[in-house]
Q: What sequence folds into this?
């Protein structure tokens, strides 16, 4: 499962396949939510 977050309403959800739109507001600007490990690597 991959976590995604809507950049419009910040709604977070999990899905096996990438979603093209937010299930909450319908916005198509969806990005993968960085895990804690990813954030550590960047900083
Ligand atoms: Zn949304």
A:
């Amino acid at each position: 499962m991959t976590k995604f977050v809507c950049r419009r309403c910040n709604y977070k959800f999990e899905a096996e396949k990438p979603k093209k739109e937010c299930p909450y507001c319908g916005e198509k600007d969806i990005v993968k939510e960085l895990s804690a490990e990813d954030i550590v690597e960047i900083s």
The helical segments are 36-42. Strands lie at 2-6, 12-15, 30-32.
